Amino acid sequence: MVFWWSQWVFLAVNIVSLPVYLPIIAVCIKEYKHNAAQRSFYLIIVSQGFMDLGLMASYFIFATLRLSEFCNNFFWTYKDYYIASWCFNQTYVSAILRCFGVLVISFQRYVSLCKHGHPIEQIINSSHRWVLPLLQWTVPSIVSLPLLVISNATFIAPDNLEVLLDRQTITLATSMTGLFVAITFVLCFLCYWIILRFLVKHRYSNSIALKRERRLYVQMLGLIVGFALLFVFYVLQFKFSLRSNDGPVFTMRVVFPVVSCFFSYVNAWMMFILNNDIRRKVFVLMGFQVQKVPGSVNMSTSLKVTPVGEPTRF
Which residues span the membrane (predicted)? Predict the structure, then answer.
C-alpha cells in the first residue's frame, strides 16, 4: 500500500494544531465555569472540541496507522471484528457528527443574537442549556445507525489493507452522508445569512455587545468555509461513486484527510488568531505570558440593540 501524501499533511496539521486546540478547549472549560452569560456557547464549543479530537484519533488509528503498514498483522487478524467495517464507516460517521455539531453552533449563535429575550433563547442559554449538546451527539448518532450496521467490509490481503466493499454499499453510504451534509449545510448557511442581515441592519448601533458579535461572526466564518469544502467533497464523491469505485473516487478518498483536518481545526485557529482574549489566556495557560488582570473572555454578554447616540450600560 502507498502512504498517501495527504496522510503526511494530516500528521503535520495535527502536530501543529493540537498544541493550539487543547489549550483552547481548556480555556473554554474555564470560561464555562466563570462566564455565566456564555455558558451555553462554551459548552457547545467544548463538546465539539472533544468530538473533533476523538474523530481525529479514530482516523489516525484506523486510517493512518493502517496505511503505514506498521500494524498489518493486527488489522488483518481482527478484520472480521468490525475493524474493516469501521475503517470504511468512520469517514461517513465523522462527517455526520461534525456537520451537525457545526449546525448546532450556528443555531445557538442565531438564537442568542436574533431571538434574544425569546422563550427559546431562555431555554437554550439558561434553563436547559444541556439540550443542544445532548442533541449534538444523539441526532447524528441516530442518523448514523444505518451506516454502522454495514459489517461486510474486508481487506484485500494481509499486505494490502485497502478496504474492499461492493459498489452498491459505497453508493448508499455516500448518498446518505451527502444528503445529510447538504441539508445541514443549507440550514447552517441560512443561520449565518440571517445573522449577517441582523448585523447589517444594526450596523450603526453603539452596542459593545453587537461589535463583539461582528468579530465573532468573522471568527466563525472559517467553519462555513470548511463546511462548504466538505459539501463539495461529498457531492463529487456521490457523483463519482455512481460510476465506479476507482479513478476519481479513489482520488477523493486520498483528499479526505486534508478536508477533514481543515474542518476540524479551522475554528480553533480562527479563535486563536482573531480573538485576542482567547489567545492571551492560551498564552497564560501555556506559561508564555503572565496574567495581569483576571477576568473572563470578552464575548458578548448582552445582545440588546441600542440606537446610535443612546448611552449603553453593561
Answer: 6-29, 41-62, 82-105, 130-150, 170-195, 216-234, 254-274
